[in-house]
Amino acid sequence: MKIVVCIKQVPATSEAKIDPETKRIVREGLKAIMNPFDIYAVEEGIQLRDKFGGEVIVLSMGPEKALLSLREAISLGADRAILLSDKAFGGSDTWATSYTLAKAIDKIGDVDLVICGKQAIDGDTAQVGPGIAAHLDWVQATYVMRVEDADSKSIKVKRMHEDGYDICEMDFPAVITVLKDINIPRVPTLKGCLASLKIEIPVWTHADIGAAIEKIGLDGSPTRVVKTAPPPPRNIITQRIEGSPQDCARQLVRELRIRSIL
Amino acid sequence: MKHRIQKKMYHVEILPPKQDTEKLEADLELFAEKYNRVMESVYCASITDNAMGNLAFQGTEIIEELGLEVNPEQVMIHLNTFHTKQDLHNILDICKSRGIKYLLIISGDGSDRLPRLQPSDVQVKGVVESVTSVELLKYIKDEYPDTFVLGAAFNPYEPPEHEFEKLQRKLKAGASFIITQPIIKKNDIVDELLEKYPDVPVIIEAWMSKKIHLLSDAVGYEIPEDTQFDPIETLKMLHKIYPACGVYLSLLGFKTQYHLIKETWI
Amino acid sequence: MIISDRTDKSKYSNVWVVAELLSGKIQPVTHELLGAARSLAAMRSSQVWAVVMGSGIAEQTHSLFAFGADKVIVVDDIRLSGFIDEIEASIMVRLIEKYKPEILIGAATARGRALIPRIAVKTNCGLTADCTELGIDPENGDLLQTRPAFGGNIMATIRCSNHRPQMATVRPRVMKALEPDFSRSGEIIRENVQDSDALKIKRIVEIFHSDQATVNLGDAQIIIAGGRGVKGPAGFEILRKFAAEVGGAVGASRAAVDAGWIPYSYQVGQTGQTVQTKVYIACGISGQIQHLVGMQSCEVIIAIDKNPDTPMMQIADIAVVGDLFEVIPEIITNLASN
Ligand SMILES: Cc1cc2nc3c(=O)[nH]c(=O)nc-3n(C[C@H](O)[C@H](O)[C@H](O)COP(=O)(O)OP(=O)(O)OC[C@H]3O[C@@H](n4cnc5c(N)ncnc54)[C@H](O)[C@@H]3O)c2cc1C
Ligand SMILES: Cc1cc2nc3c(=O)[nH]c(=O)nc-3n(C[C@H](O)[C@H](O)[C@H](O)COP(=O)(O)OP(=O)(O)OC[C@H]3O[C@@H](n4cnc5c(N)ncnc54)[C@H](O)[C@@H]3O)c2cc1C
Questions:
Q1: N or C: which end of chain A has fewer CB within 10 A?
Q2: How close C187 comes to chain A (CA, Å)?
Q3: Residue C296: domain span
């Protein structure tokens, strides 16, 4: 089984501090980490390889420092890594990002399975996984909570929906995106980390993957962020409810209905 | 443990390199340097386990990888509940085979990235929904009988009723010594602790960083950033107030402070 | 589709809503999307169309008119009884080519987030995820799409000037449905599944519906979180009942997790999960900073605490002063009786 795991490097918002004035997270100076969902994707890739043979290739599009996240994946047990890095990739939206990743997957060749995280914690769209599948015209399964079975030709997965779940079977090649429920990712060992320092990671540009210049980066992106702003300030006029438990309950439920929460 | 306190043996905290370090080899070297220095001084190296939920390497794997020498009286390994069962056993097995016997068992700080022991991993049944230091203490005591000397943490800044109740369970589960959160002056709750458990060895944590405001989170009230703080003087004072207690030195400056602590415990 | 000039753009009109079905039933989020679509259509002087794909769904189309659709495209086929992304995307691509909608909105649900990106890529269109606000630029008629990113810490406004249709997804309970008007009706257009839609597809082997929705913290719209004040596993049972009553998920502070009352996966905060729901109800949680960073982006924060002066009670939109063991059972009774 030839598996490509797509990983994105993101700012570590979980370490963020709150600005006492604005009550919002300070984003400056945040460390870059592997997108938390992608760690589960890497773990699933490694487990599938260990069970069914083959190799795990980790792929990331991003600046040079994304090498660090790729090395982390190697230290966990991925076989090799490729970085897609090129000024021309800058400003990609999910359409252009998934196009670029799809071209790289094409170039890697003979890939059976692509595994993505459910979503990235910065862009938060969950669109890149299905986008890759669409560009490649492969079958897809998103929100995968378990791989039930697999063989050299197909994979059977359990997908989560709001009203339960289903189990579906897909012939390779296929794309899946995974939830955090899918496994318990291992923690890198010192031995693994020391070994990952010695691995060469090739860096591919748009020319290397034969990506059309008009389809990548900002120019290739149909969406444009025209404005960013902090969210509207929290309404900090606290409405206080006091009294007997019955009164409190009644008032709260009424308030929830007025605010059409219920 | 008592004899080690009588011997005035400091517990010196050493943090293993973080997993996301960009200079792993240099960090390992530094770790070895600190470790060896603590060995030479005949103090105890107290090696943390993913402190603050920050992913770091395990003390045990570093000791193995670098071939560091282990004197059983001089090494303490912290062990929290954020491990897979397999990793937990790996760590415990290395400790056992290398003769490391002092373990500080804590619930610990998790993060998204750290697996946590599940109740089924440590064979607890009934109402417990998550594994805390209490379950881990009991598990280690049962699985590795007569192998380790286990300690537990005590936080004098938590609501005391809750904390004392928890401590009681930790002692019952197998803890035989206690290490407190950092204290910087006489503390009523610690006094109460010493009174309630005169026979249990207590090690108080001394905060060795000048940046005392960093303690705000732990103590639960705001310490202003410009607060003046003299760690060495405070340490001397703590020895006076708590002569029967051992001392754990957190964030000790190896370059700036290490040579000074020779004369603090007299 | 890539649009090269103004004349091309004018070929695209109307606002489409892709209906969200679960267990074969049209979901309320569809009505909410129709509400949003109506106001967009009013600004563009165009119509609202709904597209429903499923099996045995004919009777349900009526409600779509009541909630604001002018026309409904129905694709009713046994092959659409499960959720096969590949077939549905292929159908949508054909319909978009045929009818040329100007705007298309779908639900940001497990299915919508699988289906709509596939359609967007195949039609060369941009797609804005999880919009909280949709408007029209009065200057040029473009759709202005506003969405949170970075866990709710930034609001981005996005447009797709050169591509049609302009596509967006919206989470449930973000937009408001109109009062249904069951006297409204409209045209039903029937379309078929073609064999070419079903060439390379997945096979659904089993489907499980559970009555108790599989809400996890990340996807829930309401979280009922408990802290040390909940006092034990039994206290969390009360919170679970509360959560079941409002269709929410349960969360916890670290103090509760450390006490062993609830698994770590429920922990909210700096060393747990970051959540961003419509409503966060903190029960017996004092609101230390490490907890607040994990939930402060929730839209409405409600605190229930004995102590009126905790940080949580200060930042809450609604602060209920009282013993949670007395107040919450009353709330549950109150909700159940309504
Ligand atoms: C404020 C803001 C708002 C945005 N809104 C939109 C929007 O509404 N629509 C839109 O099209 N774009 C949007 N973007 C751009 C989008 O964030 C980028 O295109 C980004 O590269 C990928 O999207 P994502 O972060 O949402 O990833 P997701 O689609 O959430 O990621 C899912 C998975 O895809 C894989 N993956 C994603 N990116 C990479 C990568 N670079 N390398 C390897 N694997 C990867 C990972 O496995 C990841 O877990 C926005 C950007 C910002 C800053
Ligand atoms: C590095 C680090 C990381 C941390 N990460 C996290 C994290 O991720 N998440 C997290 O939550 N914490 C985290 N903490 C811990 C945090 O500082 C607090 O200790 C914790 O959030 C307190 O939990 P609590 O609010 O439930 O408990 P408390 O602060 O004890 O609050 C309990 C509240 O319940 C109220 N109460 C009691 N009885 C009742 C009753 N009958 N009815 C109504 N109200 C009642 C009390 O008035 C009080 O306000 C972290 C701490 C550190 C140092």
A1: C
A2: 30
A3: 217-337
